[in-house]
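Holo model, DLL. Inputs:
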Amino acid sequence: MNYWNEHFECMPRDELRVLQSRRLEKLVDRIYNNVPLYRKKMEDIGIEPGDIRTVDDITKLPFTLKTDLRDSYPFGMFAVPLSEINRIHASSGTTGKQTVVGYTARDLDTWAECVARGLVSCGITGRSIIHIAYGYGLFTGGLGIHNGAEKLGAAVVPASSGNTARQVTLIEDFRPDAICCTPSYALFLAEELAKKGLTPEEISLKVGVFGAEPWSEAMRASLEEKLGIIACDIYGLSEVMGPGVACECSLRKGMHVQEDHFIVEVINPETGEPVAPGEPGELVFTTLTKQGFPLIRYRTRDISRLNYEKCECGRTTARIEKPSGRSDDMLIIRGVNVFPSQVETVLIEFGGTAPYYMIYVDRVDNHDTMEVQVEMTEAFFSDKISEINNLEARIKARLNSILGLNVKVKLTEPGSLPRFEGKAKHVIDSRKI
Ligand code: DLL
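Output:
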């Protein structure tokens, strides 16, 4: 078995707890003194940094919610001056505003370290050629994996997302042994390679590291068969760091959390109380070493469970089971996070639309599709067809720019969309993952 950093990945759990406790104590002191939001949250519940001595004290600390990030947009929760920030990333907020995160040079190095550990645990080495088809940009997938792969000393092909024909050519010609992208895009690529007549044996790939969206064991089996690879799962979220918070090893029995950098808890999403060990619940992360954008008890809304048994690979770190869903209504469409509330916010900007809309999500040829249907008002409906087409195009352009995703928009007749007596249901997700 190969490790990137055996000392931390295989640390006896009692030693790990001591390390986590020491780091947690320092973290709480740092955020109390540098992030007004945290000082206020702690004051509100009457605790001081001195009250937190060990990992067990973590439940005394308040949670951090996505709305806290939105309310301190853009830089209000940074714990260092902007002059010390080296990189900024962002991801979808629940409405128009993005959630912004900042990294110091040391944070970027820690991130690359976590990714390098994950890639090595999947079987990638410094001699590998890694094709990265996660998007590069504000999304953490591309650049996050990239820096880890470079730290590892691999030859990195920063293909980014899109332009499938070019991706196929690069894979045929450069013969990478590893690929990193969303699992749905990997399936799409697999089918394009098959269409060109390439058999799994002829495809150079040996390992795939897939994440950023939920995927099933059935998808894993299909990817492994079609590409002739070992398909590993990688987890992360921009708020906490990006990809690499946890990653499977080549045994593929849960994602190892980099616990020297993160404390992971599982709580009951309704009550906020910790669940019994091994029970499912919402994942909550505390960042132990981050300087730019530290978080305590960040509620991810991802539902999963933890396994603390030592893995056969030798790693002692807790393992996250494939997330089984979310406790909120966030959708992940082609790797992009979409909240129905973002769509609603855009729709109400336009006159002529009634407050009835539906979002239809599907997966066609391994491609996620999203169509927004919105009713017109009676007054608008009686207007000219050209005006209807024009409004459709304007809504589409606005949604595409806000979501960063190509969506279909259809204006429908007044009264045509379903009405609900109780809680309105705005999303029909027909994807079979
Ligand atoms: O998706 C970071 C990432 C990039 C992870 C590349 C892995 C690979 P966000 O865009 O902030 O960050 O989205 C985070 O995506 O809360 C989960 O709901 C979902 N997610 C991420 N990885 C997985 C996974 C990146 N392996 C949100 N399985 C998270 C299921 C995942 N869901």
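The first strand starts at residue 87 and ends at 91. The longest helix spans residues 13-34.
Archived with the compound record.
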